């Protein structure tokens, strides 16, 4: 079934992928179809066969149906990247487009709002119904609106604000940390308000406005 050139192309594509990237049958099949002008289903069959052979030889590791990861030989033996990191990339990016973002207690800890270290990583993603590999410490959340490269930072920020009342926050001035984050991400206050008004309930919109006003007062009073 594997014709000359197809298998080499697939193998080269896999070898040139970053270590922590997910090796997904669908993505590689799409590239193969475009490169050789093949029908997608034929390209997918060829890809499935080649990736299985590479996994059988120990060149890559199968995580679940249609998803593999890189294998690296070290002085201690075979090593593979973190399953969580590999899967997280598939949930936050697809063909170079943004489709999800980190959220929940994991993100609050990452930004210094809480010292609580959660066991699971929460990802808000368009692929919220995806089946995850076993032993994967990721929880999926449905976004309030389809995540895009233009809106994900705004949705992520509003999510954080909405979680503050019920989260374990031990930072002295969490609003200033959030303000600093908003500045680094170059978030526009009006777009934040319009986004919250369109996609979130009033109980989220009002605290967001209060936060923005409080931050504005803090900075103008200095």
UniProtKB/TrEMBL annotation:
This is Transcriptional regulator, AbiEi antitoxin, Type IV TA system. It comes from Sinanaerobacter chloroacetimidivorans. It comes from the Bacteria.
């Amino acid at each position: 079934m594997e014709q000359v050139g197809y298998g080499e192309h697939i193998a080269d594509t896999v070898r040139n992928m970053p270590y922590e990237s997910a090796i997904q049958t669908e993505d590689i099949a799409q590239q193969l179809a475009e490169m050789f002008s093949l029908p997608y289903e034929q390209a997918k069959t060829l890809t499935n066969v080649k990736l299985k052979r590479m996994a059988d030889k120990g060149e890559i590791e199968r995580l679940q149906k249609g998803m593999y990861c890189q294998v690296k030989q070290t002085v201690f033996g075979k090593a593979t990247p973190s399953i969580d990191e590999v899967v997280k990339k598939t949930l936050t990016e697809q063909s170079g487009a943004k489709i999800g973002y980190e959220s929940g207690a994991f993100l609050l800890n990452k930004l210094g709002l809480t010292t609580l270290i959660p066991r699971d990583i929460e990802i808000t993603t368009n692929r919220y119904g995806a089946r995850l590999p076993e032993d994967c410490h990721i929880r999926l959340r449905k976004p309030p609106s389809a995540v895009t490269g233009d809106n994900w930072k705004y949705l992520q920020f509003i999510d954080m604000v909405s979680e503050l009342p019920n989260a374990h926050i031990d930072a002295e001035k969490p609003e200033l940390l959030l303000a600093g984050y908003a500045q680094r991400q170059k978030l526009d206050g009006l777009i934040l308000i319009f986004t919250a008004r369109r996609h979130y309930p009033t109980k989220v919109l009002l605290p967001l406005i209060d936060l923005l006003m409080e931050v504005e007062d803090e900075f103008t009073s200095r």
